[in-house]
Design brief:
Pfam families: BPD_transp_1. It is built from 24 helices and two strands. By secondary structure, it is mainly alpha-helical. The relative contact order is 0.13.
């Protein structure tokens, strides 16, 4: 190994500008595996003739799908910002009563998969739904249509705004409030101070949360399908099922292109990050007469996102006894299958993420940022596109790779690897490099120093990242539907099949179990990452 020279960067201390060859090769192999499906999708698209490709892309339905997807993402993202930023401001900067309770309550919708929320809202507010039946004695025969764009935006907003809320809240807690005090002494109103001081400070965090919300809205398959709204993900899945391989491939490439446009727009909107150390002053804004409206706002959002689906699931649970389809009867095997593949994905993601995160955090080389950014390709690519690409890859390579659990776990790892890499890299940056160096001076090898010194110190981030991968894997729908082996059923596939067959009661138990397991995963994330609710 080359002699290590310590340098310092804005991100933290680097042990060496020359990384060990083995670490570099391991990181490169992980990065290559992540980009493989996208490259294979491009290869598959080249098999389509140019004339046929242009004909498919020029169809009116293709343009309609593009417009629908763009409108859905734009409106959902704007709605998430409109909900997330005020909620973050209320729970951090004001004297909102019971603010700790509201902090947790408005974060919990992140645990509920959007497709379960969509099931519940269709059951509650759809034609002949529970809400309309309650209003029927009052003479109300029809309520506004839930299907289409409005329903998709409503559901996606309720279950993706926490991305904006959490990032904006973290930024508000870390910013220097003495700057706001200074603006107030210059006779600026609170609104002027917010526009001139607070908003520029939290803009990068809001942009980051909005990026996650927009990528989720673009890649979501379940909600648009349930709301009968034709977007890329729904049409790709339908075309693939109808043996329209060429159309599905070209639409997938279009969807990937839109994804990278969103990433580019986010980088432009975010601008230069402006950070400041937290000041001692705590400028708490008194709500006064607005306390009750503020609590009503928080209660309305949390109630719609949490109470409605839970109430509907309990209703379905009772209905399940009245209409039973034995082929759709719940089996605990589905829980075991879901937990098994999610645990495997979490473990593999952590192992694969270790060399990438360590190389990025501890060695300043030209390849380290490239490998780290390559791991985010899988997260940026929608699950239905990733699943389709791996179907093409697996079917070309053949058995025993396709169909198999190995390919399914591989898809999960590619999809959610950035969650493990991000958590691990942040943990490595918090470890003082002098500690493993001291262990090496006492006779430990580099591997021994990593095992006995560095690894125990990054354990909270490791478990937090694994829990996050586990949580998102448990909820992943399109990749599971496309890649699961025949006869392998999980909670999400059983929920989807039961709802598609019209037996809502059979979807209640697996949905409640999924929410319970997801809640436990969120609890692990909160305890390991030290989520502050004060």
């Amino acid at each position: 190994m080359a002699t290590e020279q310590r340098t310092t960067t804005d991100d933290g201390p680097d042990e060496s500008s020359d990384a060990p060859l083995g670490l570099t090769l391991a990181s490169g192999a992980v990065a290559a595996a992540v980009v493989l499906p996208v490259l294979w999708l491009v290869k598959t698209s080249l098999d389509v003739g140019l004339t046929e490709a242009l004909s498919l892309l020029a169809r009116p339905t293709t343009l309609e799908v593009f417009v629908n997807s763009t409108v859905l993402v734009a409106v959902t993202t704007a709605a998430c910002v409109a909900l997330g930023v005020p909620l973050a401001y209320l729970t951090v900067r004001t004297d909102l009563p019971f603010h700790r309770f509201w902090t947790v309550a408005v974060s919990l919708p992140l645990v509920i998969p959007s497709y379960i929320g969509a099931f519940a809202f269709v059951s509650a507010f759809g034609p002949q739904g529970d809400f309309q039946r309650l209003l029927a004695p009052l003479g109300v025969e029809r309520i506004p249509e839930i299907y289409g764009l409005q329903g998709a935006v409503l559901v996606l907003t309720l279950y993706t705004y926490p991305y904006v809320y959490i990032t904006a809240r973290a930024s508000l807690k870390s910013m220097d409030t003495t700057l706001i005090d200074a603006a107030r002494t210059l006779e600026h109103s609170r609104w002027d101070a917010f526009k001139r001081v607070t908003l520029p400070q939290i803009r990068p965090a809001v942009a980051a949360g909005a990026l996650l919300a927009s990528l989720y809205a673009l890649s979501d398959f379940g909600t648009p399908s349930i709301m009968r709204y034709d977007v890329f993900t729904r049409v790709i899945y339908v075309e693939f099922g109808a043996f329209g391989r060429d159309t599905a491939t070209l639409l997938s490439l279009q969807l990937v292109g839109v994804t990278f446009v969103i990433l580019w727009l986010e980088s432009k909107i975010r601008g230069n990050e402006r950070t400041s150390a937290g000041g001692r002053s705590r400028d708490v804004v008194p709500l006064g007469a607005w306390k009750l409206p503020a609590m009503a706002f928080c209660a309305s959002v949390a109630g719609l996102a949490l109470v409605v689906p839970l109430a509907i699931l309990v209703t379905w649970l009772g209905a399940g006894n009245a209409s039973v389809n034995q082929s759709l009867a719940f089996q605990w095997e589905y829980v075991f299958n879901s937990v098994s593949v999610s645990t495997a994905a979490a473990l593999v993601a952590i192992v694969a993420g270790l060399p990438v995160a360590y190389l990025s955090a501890r060695h300043s080389t030209r390849l380290s940022p490239l490998f780290e950014r390559a791991t985010y390709v899988g997260y940026a690519v929608p699950g239905v596109v990733l699943g389709l690409a791996l179907v093409f890859f697996g079917s070309s390579v053949g058995a025993p790779i396709y169909p198999s659990l190995y390919l399914l776990v591989f898809a999960y790892v590619i999809r959610f690897l950035p969650q493990a890499v991000g958590s691990l890299r942040a943990s490595f940056l918090r470890v003082d490099p002098s500690l493993p160096e001291a262990a090496r001076t006492l006779g430990r090898t580099s591997v021994g120093a990593f095992r006995h010194v560095t690894l125990p110190l990054v354990a909270p981030g490791l478990f937090g990242g694994a829990a996050l991968v586990f949580l998102t894997t448990m909820k992943e729908l399109p990749a599971t539907l496309l890649l699961r082996p025949s006869g392998f059923k999980t909670l999400v596939t059983h929920i989807w099949t039961a709802h598609a067959s019209g037996y809502f009661g059979q979807a209640a138990i697996p949905a409640l179990v999924l929410l319970f397991v997801s809640g436990l995963s969120m609890l692990v994330i909160i305890t390991q990452e030290g989520y502050d609710v004060k």
